[in-house]
TrEMBL record:
EC code(s) of this entry: 3.6.1.23
Molecular function in Gene Ontology: dCTP deaminase activity; dUTP diphosphatase activity
Domain of life: Archaea
Database matches in InterPro entries: dCTP_deaminase, dUTPase-like_sf, dUTPase_trimeric
Organism: Aeropyrum camini SY1 = JCM 12091
Lineage: Archaea, Thermoproteota, Thermoprotei, Desulfurococcales, Desulfurococcaceae
Keywords on record: Hydrolase, Nucleotide metabolism
Name of the featured protein: Deoxyuridine 5'-triphosphate
Name of the coding gene: dut
Coiled coil residues, start to end: none
């Protein structure tokens, strides 16, 4: 069962949202920061190294992005309940402009200001304002007893 947008607000799943961000089946997440990846990453069987990034400079809060790959952080703090799982999807407006967000599953118990990968595929680039709604978080209940909650490397990120 998926939770309604207002349920996510009432349960404290999304904090720091704008009222217009509440949708029938979730809550929109807004753009907080944009970085260009500045070095290679490494993902091995036992270890990983997340690449550093360089902040994208914006003029009056509007960022001019050329085609390519960026890492973004959302403004809102997300706290996934222990009996639920979160899914993050790009908003259709972003897709229609030639942008796409790659988001991961947010496990039960995750809390933080999440990140996603922004792909600008429009050959003419994309102008985007800090604070623009770029993703929608939907949350589903996990059936059965859940005794294992997220305690990975990204717990508390961006806080």
């Amino acid at each position: 069962m998926f939770l309604r947008g207002w349920d996510l607000i009432m349960l404290g799943v999304v904090m720091g949202h704008a009222e217009r961000a509440v949708q029938p089946a979730g809550v929109d997440l807004s753009l907080g920061e944009i970085e260009r990846l500045s070095e290679p990453g490494f993902l091995g069987r036992e270890a990983k190294s997340v690449p550093g990034g360089e902040n994208v400079s914006c003029s009056n809060g509007v960022c001019e992005l050329s085609p390519g790959v960026y890492r973004v952080r959302f403004n809102e703090v997300v706290s996934i309940p222990q009996d639920s799982v979160g899914f993050c999807y790009p908003r259709s407006s972003l897709i229609r402009m030639g942008g796409y967000l790659g988001c991961a599953v947010w496990d039960p118990g995750y809390m933080g200001r999440g990140q996603a990968l922004l792909l600008v595929a429009n050959p003419h680039g994309l102008r985007i304002e800090i604070g623009a709604r770029v993703a929608q978080l939907v949350v589903a209940r996990v059936e059965g007893p859940n005794t294992w909650i997220y305690s990975g490397d990204y717990q508390g990120e961006g806080l």
